[in-house]
Amino acid sequence: MTPVFYIFGFVAIVSAIIVCGFTPSAITVALFLLFLAAAGASDINKGIVPDLVSILIAVLAIVKFIINGITLAGALDCLEGAVCLALPMLVVTLIVKGAFGGGDIKLMAAAGLYLGLDKTLIAGLITFLIAGCYGIIILIVKKKSARSKMRFAPFIALGCAFSELFGADFLTIVKALIMHSR
How far apart are CA 6 and CA 13, in angstroms? Predict the structure, then answer.
């Protein structure tokens, strides 16, 4: 592993404890964030998201689902989370060759399974916002062309981490702003 992973890993564990306290849910959150850190670091260093990371996130999603109590609504929420961004990413990749890597799509599906629909949509918003800003900056400083490939897993990791840690609060703020504007 590289220093990038260790830095991300340390931040993941500290963030989980700060947000969740010393609770059982902090363990699942910390593991989720560590797996995201591993995916992001691997993509940065090797240009690949290992299938094992996506599998571990999917297994963690099932464990979280069991711990929280199995319900039909919960199962549907997890499945909707798994497909709401991964499926459009797959379709775009089939239309535009190389738009997203297979590892990115599998990572998004597994993370969506863990996060559920609402948090996955927030993760997608944050992911594409950060990736878009990064892409614009890279184009402005002319480090790469518009056709250059960009490693996307680090952005997925950031978006999903933000959503897991702050997604509920973010959603509350957005709903309040919408209600206030009426």
Answer: 11
Instruction: For residues 17 and 131, give the distance between their C-alpha atoms in angstroms, rounded to a whole number.
Output: 27
Supply the pLDDT for residue 146. Answer: 61
- Residue 119 · residue 166 · CB < 8 Å: no
- Counted domains in the chain: 1
Answer whether 29's CB lies under 8 Å from 16's CB.
yes
- Separation CA 112–CA 119 (nearest Å): 8
pTM of the entire predicted model: 0.90
User: Looking at residue 154, what is its pLDDT?
Assistant: 96
Domain that holds residue 54: 3-181
Rounded Cα distance, 117 and 112, in Å: 7
At CA 61, angle to CA 59 and CA 65, rounded to 5? 120
